Amino acid sequence: MRRILALTGGVGGAKLALGLAHRLAPEEVLFAVNTGDDFTHLGFEICPDLDTLTYTLSGLSNPELGWGRVDETWNFLDALGALGGDTWFRLGDRDLALHARRTALLAAGASRTAVTETITQALGIRHRLVPMSDDPVRTIVHTADGAMAFQHYFVRERCAPVVTGFEFAGAEQARPNPVIMAWLTTASAVVICPSNPFVSVDPLLALPGLKAAIRASGIPVVAVSPIVGGQALKGPTAKMMQELGVPSSAAEVAAHYDDLLTGFVLDHADAALHERLPVATTVTGTVMLSFADRVSLADSVLDFVDHLSAAG
Amino acid sequence: MRRILALTGGVGGAKLALGLAHRLAPEEVLFAVNTGDDFTHLGFEICPDLDTLTYTLSGLSNPELGWGRVDETWNFLDALGALGGDTWFRLGDRDLALHARRTALLAAGASRTAVTETITQALGIRHRLVPMSDDPVRTIVHTADGAMAFQHYFVRERCAPVVTGFEFAGAEQARPNPVIMAWLTTASAVVICPSNPFVSVDPLLALPGLKAAIRASGIPVVAVSPIVGGQALKGPTAKMMQELGVPSSAAEVAAHYDDLLTGFVLDHADAALHERLPVATTVTGTVMLSFADRVSLADSVLDFVDHLSAAG
After folding, report:
1. pLDDT at B312
2. Can you tell me whether residue B171 is helix, strand or coil?
3. CA A249 to CA A255: how far, in whole Å?
4. What's the pLDDT score for residue A191?
5. How many angstroms away from the CA of B101 is the closest CA of chain A?
6. Three-state DSSP class for B306?
7. CATH number, domain with residue A137
8. Strand B221-224 relative to strand B163-169: parallel, antiparallel, unpaired?
9. In which residue ranges of chain A is pLDDT below 50?
10. Statement: the pTM of the whole predicted model exceeds 0.95
C-alpha cells in the first residue's frame, strides 16, 4: 500500500490533489496544506488554501472563477459595499458560511486540525487534509512598495508590487502538525504538488523539523513543476522568479528544492531539460485542464514514485 | 418647532417611528433605541432593534417577513446549516453585511453611536437614531426553564418558556447616551412607542438618570399602547403579562409606566377605558397595517402631545 504525503498550496496543488484522491484510498494519502496565506478579515478566520482543497475535494469548487465555491451569490458583498465596507476580498454568500463555521469552532476552542476535520467531513470528503500547523504562520511578502500580508499582496494588490523576498512570520515557533509528523514515520513517498515554491511550499518546509524528517525518512521526494515552458500555469510564480532575478524555468524550481528532491516531474514542453537536471526526472503532461488531466498526472506521479522506490 | 424624544424597541415601535419620520424634520425627533436585545452571534455584533429601525426608516425592511431586510436571500445560512453551524437566528445574506460592517467598525474602536450614524447615513436615513447607551446592557429573561439571553428566549425558544421576570444586566453601570440626555434639555415631549414595555422600553428606563431627567423636564410623556383589545399586535407582550399575573390590558400598560406618563394613546377597541385611566387619554386607530396607518397614528400622537403641551 502506498502512503503518500502530499504538500500543497491552493489552486494548482488542489488539481493534482483531486487526481491523487481519485486514485488513492483515504489511508493512502495525507494532504498537508499551507496555512501561511491564512488571515483574519471582517472578523472571519480565512484559510484560502485549506478552503480551495476543501471545495476541490468535495466537488464544490467554482469552475468559472477558478476559486471559491460553485453556485455562488454575492449579496453579502454587494450590501457590504453599499455600507462602505471592504470588498477587495471577494467573499461569496455560501463561501462565507465556511469561514463563519471555522471562526465559531476556533472561538469555541477547537484546533485548526479539528476544525478542518469537522468541515471536510460535513462536506463528505473522505480523504484527510490537515493544516501544516495548528500554530499561526503568516507569509509576509517583501516588495518594492514595502512588506505586506500575503492576501494583501495577492488579492488586494493583484500581485502588482515587485517582490524582493518572503518571510514566514511565526514559522520558527510553529510546530509542524503532529498528524503530518506521524504520517511521515510510515510514509512511502512525499509529493510536492505544482504549487508556488516560494509562498505555497516554502512555508511548509520552514516549519522546524519537517524538512529534516523528510530527509531522514529516506523515501522518494517528488515535485511537480508549477512552471511549464517558462510560464506559471496559475498565479505569480514566474513573475516572482523574474523579480527575484532567477530565470523562470522548471530547472530553477528543481534547483530551489535542492537536495530535498529525489525526483522531478516535467511537462512535455520542458522535455529538453530531461537529462540536464541533477535529479531523476520524468516527462508527462502537467497541464491539468480537465478532470481526466488531473487523474492522468496523478497516475504519472504515482508511477514515477513507484519507479524511484523500486530503484532506491 | 417640536422636539420629540421617541423611545422605541423593534417592530411595533419602528412602525410609529416611520410615521413620525414622515411628519417630522430630522431636527424635530430623536429616536432612542433599546439595545438590551443586542447580542454577539457567530462573531457578529447584532443590534436587532437598531437594525429594525434602520431597515424601516431606509425603506429596506422586509414586508413579507415583518423583520430583516427586503429582497433577502439565505445562501449563507443554508450553507452554514450544511456545515453543522447554528441556524436558529435567521441571518440573511444582505442583512449579514450590516452586522459585519458594524462589527468591523466597533473592532476599529468606533462607538455604537458612531457606528449607527455611519450605517444610517450610508443607507440615506436623514433622521437620527441612537442606541440607548454606548455601554452594554443585556436583557435576561427569567423563566420557568431558567434564565436566558433575550434572543435565546425570543428567537431560539420562540417565547415558549413561562416568564417570571426580567433583568437588565449592566444597566446600573451603563451611561444613558449623552445624545439623548442633551436632546432632553430642549425636548418638547417624550413619546413611548408601542413597544413591549418589559423588554423594549424598560431597559431604556433602567438607565441611571434617564427616568429622572424625563420627569425633571416637565414635558408631556405620552405612551402608545402596544396592547389592543387585550392582545399584543406583535410579539409576546400579552403572553408575558399573563405569565406575570397581570391582566393583558391597555390599562395595565399605562399602570406599568405609572406616574412617568402624562398621556396614553388607546385604540378604538379600548375606547371603554377612555375615562377610567388616571392619565389623560386619547382614542385613535393604533393598528398600523399600512403606511397611511403609520402616518395617521403619528398625526394623532402629535396632536395629542400638542394638546397636552397647551394644557400644561
Report:
1. 67
2. helix
3. 10
4. 98
5. 6
6. helix
7. 3.40.50.10680
8. unpaired
9. none
10. no
- Burial of A245-278, coded b for 16+ CB within 10 Å and e otherwise, reads eeebbbbbbbbbbeeebbbbbbbebbeebeeebe
Tell me the CA end-to-end span of chain A in Å, nearest whole number: 17
Output the CA torsion B20→B26→B30→B32 (10° steps): 80
In this complex, which of B79, B94, B97 lies closest to A97 when CB atoms are compared?
B79
Nearest to A80 among B97, B107, B123 (CB): B97
Distance of alpha carbon A101 from the chain centroid? 22
The rounded distance, in Å, linking the Cα atoms of B137 and B208 is: 12
Nearest to A101 among B80, B103, B104 (CB): B80
Domain ranges, residue B138? 4-311
**In the prediction, which pLDDT does A312 show?**
67
Rounded Cα–Cα distance for residues A76 and B98 (Å): 9
Query: What is the CA B186 to chain-centroid distance, rounded?
Result: 22
Indicate the length of chain A as a whole number: 312
Q: How far apart are CA B72 and CA B139, in angstroms?
A: 28
Closest by CA to B19, choosing from B311, B289, B305, B247, is: B289
Residues in chain B: 312
Between helices A48-57 and A11-23, what is the axis angle to 10°? 40
- A4, A28 Cβ separation under 8 angstroms: yes
Nearest to B182 by CA among B219, B208, B217: B217
Contact A73 B73 (CB under 8 A): yes
> CB–CB of B284/B250 below 8 Å?
no
Supply φ then ψ for residue A55, to 5 degrees: -65, -40
Contact predicate B166/B139, CB 8 Å: yes
Q: Does A109 touch chain B (CB under 8 A)?
A: no
Q: What are the Cα distances from residue A215, in Å, to A179, B19, B242?
A: 18, 75, 75
What is the total count of domains within chain A? 1
Residues of chain B with pLDDT under 50: none
Q: What is the pLDDT of residue B242?
A: 94
Q: Regarding beta strands B231-232 and B227-228, do their DSSP bridges make them parallel or antiparallel, or are they unpaired?
A: antiparallel
